[in-house]
């Protein structure tokens, strides 16, 4: 039986670009339920945006956040010593700018982003000169200097490149203790007690301390969990599972209550130190699991090859497995850093005044009692935005690193 | 250390557990008043944590599922609205969100001027009052029907399974057994009503009295804020897990299912979801645990959960070490039970390889 085979009729190639109408039809109105969803969402978005904008324009509470910007940033840090947080910011920006020149890539993106934000805030601070900020260095000038510092050191490092690579790494390692010394005093500087610290400064300090201090501990725990010695392995497993099974507040609570009991002269331990210890111990358990994931992803051949080359266990770990494992888990670590950054807000529960605590205090200030509905919406919105900018930036960075690692594997 | 404790007269002991607590707890699942013991107060705290965790997990899973599917929608607007929601919520600390919701619920009008949602839900500054099912007089009669339904359904299931095994053919029995049990229960519901003229379970609609609502149930604004905050926050993470789970099922599976003539609904239900679940369940477990642990933030908005009650007990008795031990043991057991259950479920849905 003969079958008819129709000749394929020649067609023109499909168009690459589609018009606006076609785009709308394809993406918004493709089926009857998509039409309904689109229309309902358009209505909801319109309502939400218009009511939000009109609320933002008429809201009476904005002065609460903006007249208290100093409290939000540094809480009760003495005004005459405000140059110290500024100096620390400058130091970090200097190192960041130099790193940007040396390494480029993501670091450079962050540097230019920070410079743009500093300059932008500087313009805002300059246009509203009545914002309180009675420092020796006016806020706007400081912000412009920061932007200049970032770009300038970036350009400088572009010339020096390889000559400052190692000094820069050492400078980064030293920057954490240096920042603490500048903020706290000692070595000839007058001491500013930690109970005066607070605001965004404290939030950042807690987050950075948490990650910097928990990193070595977490790596040790991860290695310990893979150890062949049963005692060490059991201890690490027990520690990690115990900490991961309880909420951070319990650990903070333990730090606040038990640390003074366990250590001699414990009552005199700074509340801030207790919080940092608790956050470090907590974060280390999670970090250990992440690092362990990285260690497990390394093929066994790597270790066997290293041993065959005559490296001992320590050399194998330090030179072969750990560097590869850490590289693989960088995005996860950034993710954990974001979580830690958000979690630092829990210290308000043990009485420290971080960014959230400062906002809560401002909301409770007597001069806002007359404002109908209170000023909490405006204040919380401002600090929510601050938290958001930091976490969102970090999550973008993490995504970039992830993409880079994925690309380098191909 | 013991020396220091002895000096402070704070040697750890559990004897305080049988001493009257003397502090009130705003809401409780079981009966409680200040003359009851610390031990009882602690149990109240545990139950309050379990209550918010269980309800929160159910709601967060539903919202997360919707969110995860919305993120993959072919509707550009829906996809991006979901994305904006995710990016806003997950980058702001949960504690800030909880305090925000709590402050918001306190902004509601006084109870006499509550916001009326469809005559069934009332929002006011003391919490939320809503209509709730109420057990009638004939409830016990109806329960007999329910038990009967369960027995008949069970018998049906066993008989069918035996048939399947005898004929050595695969078949579906459980859903039909459920349907039979449900049908008998519904029939009983109707019959009880026809015989007595009263529904065995009726909806109790709250009615505003002079100072309070009569009927329905009222949940405090602490509980409402905690639940809303936890659900909205955790749903974001669950949504991302669902999304990546669905994406992990290879495209060929969907195409093959469509080529075999399955409808889009069947493809989703029978092909995509069972495979996606295998990827979804392990990280989902850790989100459930996170929600449970995060419920300890309730202390900031005065919901009497486990941590809140333990903190109060510690403040009153000064027995820091026993209280912390009990606190940690409780959280660990809750975490352990949740992961045991989820591991059991995970094993059930894993691919059985021969």
Oligomer: heterodimer
Q: Mind summarizing the main beta sheet of chain A?
A: none
Mean pLDDT of chain A: 87
Note the run of SSEs of chain A as H and E: HHHHHHHHHHHHHHHHHH
Stretches of chain B where pLDDT falls below 50 for ≥5 residues?
none
**Main β-sheet description of chain B:** 4 strands, antiparallel
Helix content of chain A: over 70%
Give the rounded overall mean pLDDT of chain B: 87
Distance between the termini of chain A: 53 Å
Describe it.
The complex is a heterodimer of chains A (410) and B (354). Chain A is an all-alpha fold. Chain A has helices spanning 20-27, 32-58, 62-67, 69-74, 83-103, 105-127, 139-160, 165-184, 199-225, 230-245, 248-257, 259-262, 271-296, 300-308, 313-328, 330-343, 355-363, 376-409. Chain A is globular, with a radius of gyration of 27 Å. With 354 residues, chain B is α+β, with helices and mostly antiparallel strands. Chain B is globular, with a radius of gyration of 25 Å. Chains A and B meet through helix 2, helix 11, helix 16 and helix 18 of A and helix 3, helix 4, helix 9, helix 10 and helix 11 of B.
Secondary-structure blueprint:
The complex is a heterodimer of chains A (410) and B (354).
Chain A: H1 20-27, H2 32-58, H3 62-67, H4 69-74, H5 83-103, H6 105-127, H7 139-160, H8 165-184, H9 199-225, H10 230-245, H11 248-257, H12 259-262, H13 271-296, H14 300-308, H15 313-328, H16 330-343, H17 355-363, H18 376-409
Chain B: H1 2-7, H2 38-71, H3 76-90, H4 94-106, E1 115-117, E2 121-124, E3 127-130, E4 132-135, H5 139-167, H6 174-196, E5 201-204, E6 207-208, E7 213-214, E8 217-220, H7 221-248, H8 251-259, H9 264-294, H10 306-317, H11 320-349
Antiparallel strand pairs in B: 1-2, 2-3, 3-8, 4-5, 6-7
Helix pairs in contact in B: 2-3, 2-7, 2-10, 3-7, 4-7, 5-6, 7-9, 8-9, 9-11, 10-11
